[in-house]
Specification:
The complex is a heterodimer of chains A (about 775) and B (about 170).
Chain A: H1 13-17, E1 36-42, E2 48-54, H2 56-60, E3 64-69, H3 70-75, E4 101-102, E5 108-114, H4 117-124, E6 128-133, H5 140-145, E7 159-163, E8 179-190, E9 199-204, E10 210-213, H6 219-230, E11 237-240, H7 256-268, E12 272-275, H8 278-284, E13 288-299, E14 305-315, H9 322-332, E15 342-350, H10 365-383, H11 387-394, E16 403-404, E17 410-411, H12 416-427, H13 429-442, E18 446-456, E19 469-476, E20 482-486, H14 495-507, E21 514-517, H15 535-562, E22 569-572, E23 577-580, E24 583-589, H16 590-596, E25 599-606, E26 614-624, E27 630-640, H17 647-666, E28 698-700, H18 719-736, H19 750-760
Parallel strand pairs in A: 1-12, 10-11, 14-15, 20-21, 27-28
Antiparallel strand pairs in A: 1-5, 2-4, 2-6, 3-5, 7-15, 8-13, 9-10, 9-12, 13-14, 16-17, 18-26, 19-20, 19-25, 22-23, 23-24, 26-27
Chain B: E1 2-8, E2 11-17, H1 23-31, E3 49-52, E4 55-58, E5 71-73, H2 87-94, H3 104-117, H4 123-129, H5 141-166
Parallel strand pairs in B: 1-5
Antiparallel strand pairs in B: 1-2, 3-4, 3-5
Helix pairs in contact in B: 2-5
Classes of the chains: A alpha+beta (about 775), B alpha+beta (about 170).
């Protein structure tokens, strides 16, 4: 029986559970012996001109080895970075350390290096920076209006880029619609907040090469980012990936702090370590989401949707990073799983004096799902049709051949209505409606809300010519063990276990004899890393393909060894050996074939395109109408990601995603005041989801394989966070919709819910 | 510098420490036990949770000098004598109660302390007991399953031991 599809326990767990993972801060390596510690002095204001920087007292402080400013980096020839895409305003330059202007609270200005860790905390207090305060562009609307000036004078605008063409908008989009609903909604800014904050360690060898230990989602991309910031050549850098304590999209590439750490190590001829505090993490690690959307939806009274418009403003924060690009993904997924005859969308990305925005679990697609599923409920409410019926009526029918949307997304396969029906049945939708009706009739203080979201998302996209791809290498050793090299980069996903399962299934080598390696650029020079839910469908497929190609190589060798024709040999996974057909005693194991000559294959798997997982989430909440408090009671989900290789791990991905998505709906938000001062810079202020705020989740199985890879697998890493956000938000609004409430922005905090109820009944307390 | 004398995972040791040294940094940098992690600076996340005289504490909010004369147990200290995982650790593995692993040593110690205080917790009691330990990966679902499974295993084992004695 194949090991694939079974609940294999993770082989990586014993270390994590006993001595703990070896994260960047834990790395003990002779190259890091005698390392000193780097701390950053960060801007305390959102927008200002730097008048002067006085580091003299810090330089005299105990244990201080060096103090560097942006001027030192400039003198060394390190230039600011340009935005990543050519359509972004190229005058919006990001320096490694601020020189003349600071643009957000937390921006690094000065680097202080000390002998011991605690000395750095002391010394940074002694740096004196004199600021001339400038007006802060604290919101996207202030950025667009220009009322508070520009972040980059040379750019001439606060607009980074646009996607889609507003001027081509169809003025008659909603003609013929009996019902039209429109709403401005906030897809608020949230913090990725992986449990491990950012960190790094750097050492320069006598050979002039840099070795950098950096938590990341793909060492090759991290190396590329360091090369760009430091002006180094490929053969001058080796990135080693330690265990990574969560990433959620926020650890791709490298940040300026990593580059400064590497540069300081070169300057000093000594290894340097850097680790940020949680406050620094919440202030500086790129935030996620941060879109304002205007949704307009129209259709017929029977629940048929005819037209949909999505207008997006994206907050990029102070410097254009991945956030500036995210709305293009939101636009791509505009209609979601729905068959909407007329749909259009466009976006404008702007800079503000806030923390830069980047990728966060789902990265642009949750924003699309939240918009269209909020729109469906607004429409259902306006048309007086049950939200489940509206979805049933408008979901694309089942398709097995790829289907291209008006926005250019090529959906590989889907059965959306089946997903909806399964979720509704598992949730007991009719019973929930009856319970809701009873509470409404009784006027209970605790009202029941039921929220739906039917989503489709894109996974495993890639800009590579010829299609998304990933490499994998498999080698069988003479002792019967095997080593796998992968271009993916797990940080909790369990590739060590699953890649071993894939190899074991082909080669018959037990998983505990298979070592999986990743994240060392000397060992694996190429790779796309882990993100965009790409790993299994590309990296896993590559490992499987390499295993099969290894068997082809081995078959030729076995034929020579057994003096038989290759076609007369059979491979037995029970013994991991080839034997002659009909004569099992004449056999040779793979391990023997590896003795004379190394037995390995490196293979690149290329997919025809990205895949499109889908599903439906049903959230059930109770809302205390007297206090506005939301209690999340149930989340029932169908998340169809094609064939599942290890259900235990796939379920874990769903659980985590559901929780993160739900947290955005009713709890988490990064908040700034009107001057751009962050108000949620610690875990005491940022309402990070805890165990008491979520229920156990109810997962329903559904597998619609894709034809885009031999595994039949689509991505599962982000699906949970895409479906659950709109489902929970819709549930909260549904709980009080009978009171006249049609919309509540996220997070649906007690204050917002309470105000919405009061506004709906005309109270002045709203 | 101040001299402290304490027991860490059953081993008595004494060290000269700065009075302001946090227990978590003492454990990580001085003793070399790096399972406990620092995940925040406001005593919110619990990644640094260890046992102090058998009760869970957040070691980022205890000074090393405060641990003098007392007994500290870390995740490294709850493995079995033969090096295999302890009951709570095994339950985390069997229930996939960890992904990136960063919160895990703290979570294991918080769960160990919880089960010592309440050997038969309900799901809600487990959730409340772990409220001070953050996890970003699992949505807490499988962590809760793991702690409930560990409770069953521990009570089953003690019942088994009693049965043996009776026999």
């Amino acid at each position: 029986m194949s090991i694939l599809g079974t609940r294999v326990l993770r082989t990586e767990d014993p270390g994590f559970l006993s001595t703990g993972g070896v994260y960047a801060e834990d790395v003990q390596d002779e190259r890091l012996a005698g390392a000193c510690y780097l701390h950053f002095v960060r801007s305390t204001v959102a927008h200002a001109t730097i008048r002067s920087i006085d580091v003299s007292a810090a330089k005299e402080a105990e244990g201080v080895i060096a103090v560097y400013t942006g001027a030192d980096l400039a003198a060394a020839g390190l230039a600011p970075s340009k935005p990543m895409m050519p359509n972004m305003n190229q005058a919006m330059l990001a320096p490694l350390l601020a020189t003349d202007t600071v643009r957000f609270v937390g921006e690094p200005v000065v680097a202080v290096i000390t002998e011991e860790m605690y000395q750095g905390e002391d010394a940074i207090e002694l740096v004196d920076i004199d600021y001339d305060i400038l007006p802060s562009v604290a919101t996207m609307h202030q950025a667009l209006s220009g009322e508070r000036g520009l972040l980059f004078a040379d750019a001439g605008t606060n607009v980074v880029c646009t996607f889609g063409d507003e001027s081509a908008s169809n003025r008659d989009l909603f003609e013929g619609c009996e019902v039209v609903a429109s709403q401005v909604i906030q897809n608020q800014r949230v913090a990725p907040a992986p449990m491990e904050s950012r960190s790094g360690a750097a050492a320069w060898g006598e050979d002039g090469r840099l070795t950098a230990w950096i938590p990341n989602q793909g060492a090759q991309g991290t190396k590329g980012a360091l090369m760009g910031m430091l002006g180094l050549k490929p053969d001058q850098i080796r990135v080693i990936t330690p265990d990574v304590g969560g990433a959620f999209g926020a650890k791709f590439g490298a940040d300026s702090e990593h580059a400064v750490t590497c540069w300081a190590a070169m300057q000093l001829g000594r290894p340097v370590r850097w680790s940020e505090t949680r406050m620094e993490n919440l202030l500086v690690m790129p935030h996620g989401r941060a879109q304002e959307q205007k949704i307009t939806i129209g259709g017929m009274r029977d629940g048929t949707v005819l037209a949909y418009r999505l207008e997006i403003i994206q907050d990029c924060g102070a410097y254009p990073k991945a956030g500036a690009f995210l709305p293009s993904l939101t636009r791509l997924m505009t209609p979601g799983p729905y068959n909407i005859p007329r749909a259009e969308s466009w976006s404008t990305s702007v800079v503000t004096n806030t923390t830069p925005v980047g990728a966060y679990r789902g990265a642009g697609r949750p924003e699309a799902a939240a918009a269209v599923d909020r729109a469906m409920d607004l429409f259902a409410d306006a048309a007086g049709v049950d939200p489940a019926e509206v979805r049933r009526k408008n979901l694309l029918p089942k398709f097995t051949e790829p289907l291209t949307t008006a926005f250019g997304a090529k959906y590989d396969s889907g059965d959306y209505v089946a997903g909806l029906e399964k979720a509704l049945e598992a949730a007991g939708y009719q019973g929930l409606l009856a319970e809701q009706a009873k509470r409404r009739a009784n006027g209970d203080a605790l009202q029941l809300g039921i929220g739906l979201s039917s989503y489709v998302e894109i996974t495993g996209p890639g800009g590579e010519a010829g299609g998304p791809n990933e490499n994998g290498t498999v080698e069988v050793h003479p002792d019967g063990t095997a080593t796998v090299l992968t271009g993916t980069s797990p940080h909790g996903q369990g590739h060590q276990t699953v890649w071993a399962m894939l190899v074991s299934d082909e080669l018959g080598i037990p998983i505990d004899k298979i070592t999986v390696k990743w994240g060392d650029t000397d060992l694996v020079p190429k790779g796309g890393g882990t993100g965009g839910s790409r790993s299994l469908q590309l990296g896993g497929a590559a490992v499987q393909q390499a295993s099969r190609e290894l068997l082809d190589v081995a078959r030729e060798r076995a034929a020579a060894a057994l003096e038989a024709a290759p076609s007369d040999l059979v491979f037995d996974t029970e013994t991991s050996a080839f034997s002659v057909k009909g004569d099992p005693d004449v056999s040779v194991p793979l391990s023997t074939l590896a003795e004379a000559e190394r037995l390995f294959v490196r293979s690149v798997f290329t997919a025809p395109g990205p895949t499109f997982p889908f599903g439906t989430h049903v959230a059930v909440v109770e809302v205390d109408t007297e206090t506005g408090k939301v209690f999340l009671r149930r989340v029932v989900t169908v998340d169809d990601a094609g064939t599942v290789i290890n259900p235990l791990l796939a379920e874990g991905q769903r659980h985590g995603g559901i929780a993160q998505g739900a947290a955005q709906a009713f709890l988490e938000e990064v908040v700034y005041d009107d001057d751009g001062n962050p108000l949620t810079a610690t875990f005491a202020d940022y309402p990070f989801l805890s165990a008491t705020e979520v229920p156990s989740f109810e997962l329903v199985d559904m597998e619609t394989p894709t034809s885009y890879n031999p595994l039949g697998a689509k991505g599962i890493g982000e699906a949970g966070s895409i479906g659950s956000t709109p489902a929970v938000q819709n549930a909260v609004i549904d709980a009080v919709s009978h009171l006249g409430v049609t919309h509540i922005d996220m997070p649906t905090s007690p204050q917002r819910v309470w105000r919405a109820i009061n506004a709906a009944n005309g109270s002045k307390e709203a | 510098m101040t001299e402290i004398k304490l027991t860490v995972n059953g081993v008595t040791r004494s060290d000269e420490v700065e009075p302001r040294l946090l227990l978590v940094h003492y454990l990580r940098e001085t003793v070399g036990l790096r399972a406990a992690n620092v995940g925040c600076d406001t005593t919110s996340c619990g990644a640094c949770t260890v046992l102090l005289d058998g009760e869970s504490v957040k070691s980022c909010t205890v000074l090393a000098v405060q641990a003098s004369g007392r007994s500290v147990t870390t995740a490294e200290g709850v493995v079995e004598a033969d090096g295999s995982l302890g009951v709570v650790q095994t339950a985390f593995r069997e229930n996939h109660g960890l992904q990136c692993g960063f919160c895990t040593p703290g979570m294991v110690m918080a769960a160990t302390s919880l089960l010592a205080e309440n050997p038969h917790p309900t799901e809600q009691e487990v959730r409340e007991g772990l409220e001070g330990n953050f996890c970003r990966c699992t949505g807490y679902h499988n962590i809760v399953r793991a702690v409930l499974a560990a409770a069953d295993k521990l009570s089953g084992d003690s019942a088994g031991a009693q049965a043996e004695v009776t026999a």
